[in-house]
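Reopening closed ticket. The problem is back. First fold of the pair:
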Amino acid sequence: MTRVLLLGGTGDALRIARQLGSRHVYSLAGLGKVPDDLSCGVRVGGFGGSEGMARYIADERIGLVVDATHPYAAQISANAAKASGAVGVPCWALRRQGWKPQAGDDWRMVGDWAELTAALAPFNRPLFTLGREPLAHLDEIPPQQFWTVRCLDTYEGSPRARILATRGPFTLKGERMLFSAEAFDVVVSKNSGGSATEAKLEVARERGLPVVMLRRPELPAVDREFASVADLLEALQVSG
C-alpha cells in the first residue's frame, strides 16, 4: 500500500489507524490521549501550516493523505488539501454526515460565537458540548447563567461554571443521569454526526429542551470523499 499520512483525532480516525501497518503515520494535534497500541507510527503536534505539511509529505515520501479530522477542523482540512496539492499527492477525506433534526427537536442554528451567545440569552443553565472553545469565554458568562462545559481539558473553571473533563462515547443512560442531576435548560452542540455523542440530542428531545446548533464550516474539495469508515478502508485496500 502507498504510504499513508492519516490526519486524525476522532474515533473514526482511530478505527482507520488500527488497520494501518508500520509504514504509515497517524498524526494527532496533541489534545487528549495518545494511543499506544497501534502498529502504525504516531506523530503528535502541528506541521506549521500547509507549507510545513507539504514539506513533511515530501520528506517522508507520503503517497496519500487521508483527512479524518473532526468535521469542524476546517483549518487543518484546508491545510491538508493545499499541502497535498502543492506536492502532487492525492488527498482523501472522511466526511461524516451530520445529524438531521427529528420530530420534537427544537434546533436553533447559529454561525459563530456572537450568534451563539445571543441565542443563549433567554436561558440559565446551558450545557456546552463544543469542545474547549467556551473556556476562552468564562469571563463573559452573563449574570443569570451558570455554564457546564464538557471537553477534554481539565480546568479550574469559575464560580459560575463547571468543567466536565471527559470524552465520549456517551451512553443514553449516562446522559439521562447527567441531565437530571444538572437541570440544563438548553444544549449547545456542533453538528458532529456519528453515534458517539448523539445521545445528548435524544435526551434533549425527551425533555423538550432546545439545542443551539453550530453550523458546519465549509470544507475544501479533495480527490475523493467517503461517508463511512468502511468505504474508506475498502478503498485503501484497493489502492494498495
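Second fold of the pair, where the issue appears:
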Amino acid sequence: MDKPAKQRDAEATKARILAAAKKEFAKNGLAGARVDVIADRAKANKRMIYHYFGNKEDLFQIVLEEAYIDIRTAEQKLELNNIPPREALEKLVRFTWTYYLKNPEFITLVNSENLHKARHLKKSQMIEKVSRRFVDMVARLLERGTAEGAFRPGIDPVQLNITIAAIGYYYLTNRFTGSIVFQRDLMAADALDERLRFNIETILRLVCVEL
C-alpha cells in the first residue's frame, strides 16, 4: 500500500535536511556549522529541522551515525565469506581506500567528532551495534584464513581494522601538507594507484603466511 503523500513529503524533507547537514558539518565542523545554511540548502525552515531532529547537536549525532552506518552497511555487502581469505582481505583494503576517496565527508565528520572527544558516539547505541558486526566480520575472515593456512595466527581483528583504516586515512587527511613535504602530488591518479598497491601489499605482508 502506498504511503500517504504527507508521509512521503516528510521523509523527503528529512532526507534533504540530512544531506544538507552532512555537507555543512563536513565543511565547517559542529561549531562552525549553521542551521540557517542547512535549512536554506534543504529548502526547509529551521522549525522543521528542530521538529524532526532536535537541536544542532542532535542533528550532528544523527548525521554522524548515518555516516558510520553507510560505510558499515557497504562493508557487509562485500560478502567476504564467499571469497578465498586472501582475496577477501585484498577486497576489504581496496574497498576502504575507495570509500574514503568517494566519501571525503566521512573523514571530515570523523575528524570533527574526534575534536569533541567522541561525545556524540558515546551516546549512540547504534554505532556500537554496527561496529561490533564489522569487527566480527573481520574476525571470521582471520579465523578462516588461519584455518586454511593462509594467514598467521593470533592477529587481533581490531588492530587489523585500525591499521587498514589508518594507512588510507592518514594519507588523505595529510594530502595537502604531504604534497609539499614529499614534493609530489599525492592526489594525482598515478599516485593514488601507487598508494592503493602499497596499502594492499602492506596488509597482505602483515597478515599472510607467504606472498
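Update: turned out to be a display glitch only; the data is intact. The mean pLDDT is 94. The chain has ten helices and no strands. Please close again.
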